[in-house]
């Protein structure tokens, strides 16, 4: 309820309109140029999401979301460490972008029509970096495998979020009665579930996964196969700055394309040497991709070897994924939709031509 | 060891007192037993958990983050030295007045005002040090910085508003009354959201106001309204006859306020003001919900580290201890000031 009333307070469209009137529509310098002349990328992150962005013991940020920031910094500035991170809450993130406090929002933001459109939040989304979806976590003992098995049960859910609405929509459509029990934070939700106040938790599958890994016996709990919603999480930039949006978009595509071609952080220099004066000298597509030939980078306003810089800094998309969400990490999420299209997933980079 | 008869009678007296105080009647006995069982059981469970079940690695491995935030490691001495200076100042203030030279005692208020600018110089830049951006400020250090900033801004503003509220100029009186009532009628979190979300939109293009500064400004404006009311309470406790006496002595209105009214009013308002200071430390934790990495915020970031998943109980108990320790320190400082003022008041 608090969040709801605050949202109403924060999103006063009238005030937004007033603020945009007050600033004269002068010729703006692209954020790409601003980032280059500043020598630093200002990136908005959550900072509180296991696997996506969190603080290490050394006091640095790490995670899938922060690696996207690092890749963009490497592509634009040649140095992945030149990132100025700002922690943002869900309510602040769009204001921070539109007021120019940050250049790039890499904070598990679901791409939706109203966030994309000028009549809404006026964002430009880069390619989806993580396909999430709302899931349901139950204890193994309950024996539930479908939502129908949970008929009449109570669900622990975040109050006032889209999660609650999705649950309502899906269960009502299927005629399943249920009782929502609302909580503000994931911790409260987990505790209530563990105390037996509800039979299931519903949240984004990535968040359920990290909840489960924190439980004493993670194997006693399962995430159902059913997915209640589509949550494509994508980095975003502000509307009306095509040059900057393109630079971010193609940096992300570069990471995905590198995975498709088997170019990794470990073999990038080898590949570069081979394409420059080795076995791959005749491979024009690879030479273009690595910036040895042609001017793909400079068309975007980036160095021609921007992909090389990004991959050398953080690895290809698959490597980023494995580092933070792969098997062996405590936030393991099977790749599923997040595999490259060559492995049956959804990540598919357009040609670098 | 041989027990002397004196100590024996002493222990017997103690037993007697215990019996009289705790087991005087069957009802008293029942209440005592129930309380001991409930509290003791709870405490035992907590201890059992803390010693045997809890994994304190999440606290022990991140001590630096809790205290200094993610301040650059090469510059961390600056953060520690500010916290050290602050601790030294606390100790100096709390020491018995006989031990500390009077000259130092007189300097203390000035030192307390100066500790904030010194902190800013040390932490941000200046003195030829490498600049460190405010996004690297975090943990307890940021909480304390926010608290000090809030108090130093709210206290003078509150005093001015308390005086303005009693002013004979109607416009000034109405404006301050309106402001105070407005601020008191709003929840702090709404004011903070306004500060973090609205101020950037109203600033001209290309202007940015630091997030920490925005937080201090919002907290300060909010606290000032409450402090104004506390000071006004103090002002009202002064009998009118004193003002008449001051006037008949030929003191100007300004001098009457400065020499007669304020010293007494502030002394009366001191317990309430100290209360507000402690509250303002606790209020800083709300900023965790606005993306600042003060003590609570940074703890939430640490909890997101996959290595420490599920250890929030340990972290929150540690935080409770830390906040409690700082609050106790603040209240004892306030007691100290109260005592000092009362002594001088009797002279």
TrEMBL record, chain A:
<feature type="signal peptide">
    <location>
        <begin position="1"/>
        <end position="24"/>
    </location>
</feature>
<keyword id="KW-0813">Transport</keyword>
<dbReference type="InterPro" id="IPR001638">
    <property type="entry name" value="Solute-binding_3/MltF_N"/>
</dbReference>
<comment type="similarity">
    <text>Belongs to the bacterial solute-binding protein 3 family.</text>
</comment>
<feature type="domain" description="Solute-binding protein family 3/N-terminal">
    <location>
        <begin position="40"/>
        <end position="271"/>
    </location>
</feature>
<keyword id="KW-0732">Signal</keyword>
<dbReference type="InterPro" id="IPR051455">
    <property type="entry name" value="Bact_solute-bind_prot3"/>
</dbReference>
<dbReference type="GO" id="GO:0006865">
    <property type="term" value="P:amino acid transport"/>
</dbReference>
<dbReference type="Pfam" id="PF00497">
    <property type="entry name" value="SBP_bac_3"/>
</dbReference>
<protein>
    <submittedName>
        <fullName>Amino acid ABC transporter, periplasmic amino acid-binding protein</fullName>
    </submittedName>
</protein>
Automatic annotation (TrEMBL), chain B:
<dbReference type="InterPro" id="IPR010065">
    <property type="entry name" value="AA_ABC_transptr_permease_3TM"/>
</dbReference>
<feature type="domain" description="ABC transmembrane type-1">
    <location>
        <begin position="140"/>
        <end position="334"/>
    </location>
</feature>
<dbReference type="InterPro" id="IPR035906">
    <property type="entry name" value="MetI-like_sf"/>
</dbReference>
<feature type="transmembrane region" description="Helical">
    <location>
        <begin position="21"/>
        <end position="44"/>
    </location>
</feature>
<dbReference type="GO" id="GO:0022857">
    <property type="term" value="F:transmembrane transporter activity"/>
</dbReference>
<feature type="transmembrane region" description="Helical">
    <location>
        <begin position="185"/>
        <end position="203"/>
    </location>
</feature>
<dbReference type="GO" id="GO:0043190">
    <property type="term" value="C:ATP-binding cassette (ABC) transporter complex"/>
</dbReference>
<keyword id="KW-0472">Membrane</keyword>
<dbReference type="InterPro" id="IPR000515">
    <property type="entry name" value="MetI-like"/>
</dbReference>
<keyword id="KW-1003">Cell membrane</keyword>
<protein>
    <submittedName>
        <fullName>ABC-type amino acid transport system permease component</fullName>
    </submittedName>
</protein>
<feature type="transmembrane region" description="Helical">
    <location>
        <begin position="107"/>
        <end position="129"/>
    </location>
</feature>
<keyword id="KW-1133">Transmembrane helix</keyword>
<dbReference type="InterPro" id="IPR043429">
    <property type="entry name" value="ArtM/GltK/GlnP/TcyL/YhdX-like"/>
</dbReference>
<dbReference type="Pfam" id="PF00528">
    <property type="entry name" value="BPD_transp_1"/>
</dbReference>
<feature type="transmembrane region" description="Helical">
    <location>
        <begin position="76"/>
        <end position="95"/>
    </location>
</feature>
<feature type="transmembrane region" description="Helical">
    <location>
        <begin position="209"/>
        <end position="228"/>
    </location>
</feature>
<keyword id="KW-0813">Transport</keyword>
<feature type="transmembrane region" description="Helical">
    <location>
        <begin position="315"/>
        <end position="334"/>
    </location>
</feature>
<dbReference type="GO" id="GO:0006865">
    <property type="term" value="P:amino acid transport"/>
</dbReference>
<comment type="similarity">
    <text>Belongs to the binding-protein-dependent transport system permease family.</text>
</comment>
<feature type="transmembrane region" description="Helical">
    <location>
        <begin position="141"/>
        <end position="164"/>
    </location>
</feature>
């Amino acid at each position: 309820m608090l969040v709801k009333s605050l949202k109403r307070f924060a999103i006063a469209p009238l005030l937004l309109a007033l603020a945009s009137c007050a600033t004269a529509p002068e010729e703006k310098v692209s954020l790409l140029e601003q980032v280059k002349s500043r020598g630093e990328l200002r990136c908005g992150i959550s900072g509180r999401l296991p696997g996506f962005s969190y603080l290490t013991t050394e006091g640095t940020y790490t995670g899938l979301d922060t690696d996207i920031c690092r890749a963009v910094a490497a592509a634009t500035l040649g140095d992945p460490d030149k990132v100025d991170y700002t922690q943002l809450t869900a309510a602040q993130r769009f204001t921070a972008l539109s007021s120019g406090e940050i250049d790039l929002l890499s904070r598990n933001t679901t791409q939706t029509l109203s966030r994309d459109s000028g009549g809404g939040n006026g964002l430009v989304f880069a390619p989806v970096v993580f396909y999430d979806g709302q899931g349901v976590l139950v204890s193994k003992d309950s024996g539930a495998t479908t939502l129908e098995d949970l008929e009449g049960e109570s669900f622990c859910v975040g109050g006032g979020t889209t999660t609650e609405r999705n649950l309502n929509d899906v269960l009502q459509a299927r005629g399943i009665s249920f009782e929502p029990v609302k909580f503000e934070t994931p911790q409260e939700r987990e505790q209530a579930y563990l105390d037996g106040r509800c039979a299931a938790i519903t949240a984004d599958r990535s968040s359920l996964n990290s909840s489960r890994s924190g439980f004493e016996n993670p194997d006693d709990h399962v995430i159902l196969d059913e997915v209640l919603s589509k949550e494509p999480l994508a980095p975003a930039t502000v509307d009306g700055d095509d040059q900057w949006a393109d630079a971010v978009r193609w940096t992300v595509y570069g990471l995905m394309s590198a995975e498709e071609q088997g170019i990794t952080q470990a073999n990038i220099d080898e590949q570069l040497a081979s394409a420059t004066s080795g076995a791959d000298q005749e491979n024009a597509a690879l030479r273009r991709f690595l910036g040895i030939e042609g001017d793909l980078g400079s068309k975007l306003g980036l160095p021609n070897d921007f992909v090389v810089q990004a991959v050398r800094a953080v690895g290809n998309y698959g490597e980023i994924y494995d580092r933070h969400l792969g098997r062996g990490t405590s936030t393991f999420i099977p790749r599923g939709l997040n595999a490259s299209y060559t492995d049956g997933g959804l990540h598919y980079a357009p040609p670098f031509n | 060891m041989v027990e002397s008869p004196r100590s024996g009678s002493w222990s017997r007296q103690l037993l007697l007192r215990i019996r009289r105080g705790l087991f005087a009647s069957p009802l008293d006995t029942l209440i005592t037993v129930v309380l001991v069982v409930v509290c003791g059981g709870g405490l035992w469970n907590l201890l059992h958990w803390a010693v045997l079940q809890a994994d304190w690695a999440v606290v022990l491995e991140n001590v630096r983050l809790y205290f200094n935030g993610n301040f650059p490691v090469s510059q961390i001495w600056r953060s520690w030295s500010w916290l050290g200076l602050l601790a030294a100042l606390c100790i100096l203030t709390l020491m018995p007045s006989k031990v500390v030279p009077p000259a130092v005692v007189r300097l203390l208020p000035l030192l307390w005002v100066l500790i904030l600018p010194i902190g800013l110089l040390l932490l941000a830049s200046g003195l030829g040090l490498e600049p460190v951006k405010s996004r690297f400020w975090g943990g307890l250090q940021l909480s304390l910085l926010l608290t000090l900033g809030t108090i130093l801004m709210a206290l003078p503003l509150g005093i001015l508003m308390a005086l303005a509220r009693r002013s004979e100029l109607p416009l000034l009186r109405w404006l301050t009354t309106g402001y105070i009532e407005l601020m008191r009628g709003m929840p702090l979190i709404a004011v903070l959201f306004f500060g973090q979300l609205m101020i950037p939109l109203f600033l001209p293009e290309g202007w940015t106001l630091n997030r920490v500064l925005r937080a201090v400004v919002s907290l300060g404006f909010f606290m000032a309204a409450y402090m104004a009311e506390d000071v006004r309470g103090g002002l009202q406790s002064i009998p009118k006859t004193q003002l008449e006496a001051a006037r008949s002595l030929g003191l100007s209105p300004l001098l009457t306020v400065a020499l007669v009214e304020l010293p007494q009013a502030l002394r009366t308002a001191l317990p309430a003001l100290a209360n507000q200071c402690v509250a303002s430390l606790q209020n800083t934790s709300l900023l965790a919900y606005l993306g600042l990495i003060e003590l609570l915020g940074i703890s939430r970031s640490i909890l997101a580290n996959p290595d420490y998943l599920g250890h929030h109980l340990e972290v929150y108990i540690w935080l409770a201890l830390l906040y409690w320790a700082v609050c106790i320190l603040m209240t004892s400082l306030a007691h100290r000031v109260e005592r000092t003022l009362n002594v001088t008041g009797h002279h």
